[in-house]
Specification:
alpha+beta, 4-stranded antiparallel sheet, 451 residues, 4-stranded mixed sheet, 23% helix
Amino acid sequence: MKKTIFLVLASILFFGCGSKNKGKGELIGVKGKRWHPEKPYGMSLIPGGAFVMGKSDDDIVDLQDAPTRTVSVRSFYMDDTEITNSEYRQFVEWVRDSILRDKLADLADLEGKTQEDDGIGAYAYVDSGDPEDLSPYEQYMLDTYGDEQRKINRDVDLIFDAEDYPDVLYAEVMDGMYLPPDEWYNGQRTWDVSQFEFQYTYMDIEDAANYKELKRSDFIDKYPIKVYPDTTVWIRDFEYAYNVPMHNDYFWHEAYGDYPVVGITWEQADAFCQWRTLNKNTYQKGKKKQNVNMFRLPSEAEWEYAARGGLEGATFPWGGPYAKNDRGCFLANFKPLRGNYAADQALYTVEADAYEPNDYGLYNMAGNVSEWVNSSYNSSSYEFSASFNPNINDKENPKKIIRGGSWKDVAYFLQVSTRDYEYADSARSFIGFRTVQDYLGADATANAATN
C-alpha cells in the first residue's frame, strides 16, 4: 500500500512522565485506568460469543451496506478508552529517544569513543569496548550481521538541557534533531518532528498461508512510519474557523493529556500497536517471561460486538433508541443540533473516560472520536466474509473502516451498526483509535502482568 506521510508544522515540547506502569512496558493511561491481575493494564475482557451484526429491519438507510447477519467472535481484550494524548506521547518520545541514542552511538563510534570514555562515550553502543566482554552469541551475531545487531545504550539518561550537555559532540547530535533557528516560533527551540520515524517489521501470515511455494522472507516487510500526529488537521478540517489553540496545544499540553489523540492515520495507529507489543515484550524478555500476544486494531466485527456491550438489537452502546436519558442529558459527545456543537456541553473532544461506560466497561464507544479498525471498507463485505471472526483487510484497498461517530457527527453515525470509512493515509481531527489483544486465558494474562 502506498504510504503518504503528512509533514507536521506544529511547535512542540515534550514532558517526561514518571509512572510505575511505564517501567513495566505499560502505557501511561488516563486516571480511570487501573491494574487488574487477570487482564492487561487498562483493558476489559470482551467474552466471545455470537451476535446479530448490521442494521435492524426498521433502518431504511444503508441496508445494502450493512445487512443483518449472525456472526461469532472469539474472546479478546479491548482498551477501556480511546488511546489518549499522554499514551501516544509515550510512543513519540520513545521513538525520539531511540533515534537520539542511535545518532549518539554512531558519532561515538565514528570518533572512536567507548563506554569507558567520558562525554558522548557514555552513549556508545553496548558492544563497544573490549570484544572479550561480549557473549559468544553477541560476538557471532555482530560478526555475521554487522551493524544491524548493534544495541544502543538505554541505561544512561538523555540530557535535554543545553546548559548540561557533556561535550561538543553531544551538542552536535542534539542540534541536528532541532529545526534551525530561522524556523523557530516565538523564540522557542523546536524539535524537527519529521525525523521521528518508527520502523517495524511485519510478516503477512495470511499471504504466507496462501502462497506456500514462496520463501518466508517474501512475506516479511519493513515499514518506516513518521509517528508525530498531524496537528494541522484542526485547521484543514474546518476552513474559516478559528482553531489555532487546538493546533498549538491539543497534543502536547498536559491539560489535554487524558483526551483522545487525533490527527493519526490508520498507518500510524497500526505502528502504535506494533510499538506497544515491542515495548511490553522487551520488559517481558528482561524478566525472562513469555511474550504477550500482540496488540492490534480491532476487526470491524470485534468493534461492533464490543460496542453493543452484550445488548442484542441495541441502537447505541447504552441501549436505545435515544441519545438522551430520561432526565434529558446527552449520553455521548456528538453534534446534537445543527450548528450547535456545544449543546452536549462539549465543543470539541472530551476526556477519554467521560460519560458512562457500556456493560463491558468501555467508554465512548459512541461519539468523542471515530475509531480506526483493522478492516478495509467494502460495501458488500457482509455478504462474503466468514461468519466467525469475520475480517476483510485488503492491502490493495486504501479505504479503512472507522466506527462510532465523533464530536462533529450527528447521532446516526453514533449507532453501533453504522459503517463509515476514511483513507488509510488520512489524518483527521475527529478520528482516533483503541487497541485490542487476543485472549489466552486468565492465567497467561496474570503471569504477564505480575513481577
